[in-house]
Design a protein that fits this description.
- Belongs to the NAD(P)-dependent epimerase/dehydratase family.
- This is UDP-glucose 4-epimerase.
- By secondary structure, the protein is of the alpha/beta class.
- It has 9 helices and 14 strands.
- The strands form 4 sheets. Strands 3-2-1-4-5-7-11 form a 7-stranded parallel beta sheet, sandwiched between helices.
- Helix 1 crosses helix 6 and helix 5 packs across helix 7.
Amino acid sequence: MKVLITGAFGFIGSWLCRYFSEQGHEVIALTSKQRQGENALSKFYKELVTVDITKSPEEIADKLSDNIDCCVHAASFNEHFMPNYPKLALEINGLGTRNILEALRLKGLKNSGHRLGSFIYLSTFHVYGVSSGLVRESDSLNPKNDYALSHLVGEEYCRMFTRRYDMPNIILRLSNGYGAPQNISFNKWYLLLHDLCKEVFNNATLTLKSDPNTKRDFVWLGDICKVIERLSLILPKRYDLFGQSVNLASGKAISIKEVAKEIIEAYACFSGKQALLNELRSSEGSGSLLENKLVIDNLLLRSILDNDFEFKQCIKAEAFETFKFLERYQVS
């Protein structure tokens, strides 16, 4: 299968490139720009396309290969601390998604006889705008930040292309994906696992700055890749899934404190040293356990996968790999 992966050098995209390549697929990596150290990923793709997805669809289409079977749209902008973030988020996460969809449609018109089999859009559970309770696909959407709202715009473009052009796409609302960095240009150190690993690596101390009993859904990037591959093969035959939104989550909630303990155990294995865990004590009046727990329902996804997929918990293993990354590249 010829697979186009957008945002190929990003956090999730780099995992996807490696996974699909190792499964024997022909990977086309699309990125807006190539940064230092990313040539290390070259063994995981056959072709590199460098193009800004905020440019015209015609310009993007001209750079794409013929006969693409699947596109995994992982390109995303989440650097909320950057200047002009609202504008950039809408341009990349929203309009950028439309541009990729239109570019693939135009490419398909030129490649008569070859139809795109699947377009998989990686959205986010943040479109629900909730921080506690049980979240299902049927719940109302209430995005509360530019990241969530711009991804919802991307979702609507996917549905529009299904209505107008019968585009075979599916929308995956990802929960908190975790995994070790795959390239030297990695810059997502604000994500929970990476932030805590970096603190432990540098100080042999881990300080939890929020309620340690807060429970969230965490899903391993290895499982995300496997699910996406299976869906890419299922989707061409499942017209009922075109334009559907599906939660991609482990379906289980674990506490921040549990995550921290896994990281400390990984650090002990890596360094032979015991790190100190400091945690804030939640006040008795801070709310019930239910209010601190967010569970993302994945029953729809499981049914699509015939209920034979089991999600793994690999926090300790990925923390260990993150420590190796920190040591290898001397990240400060």
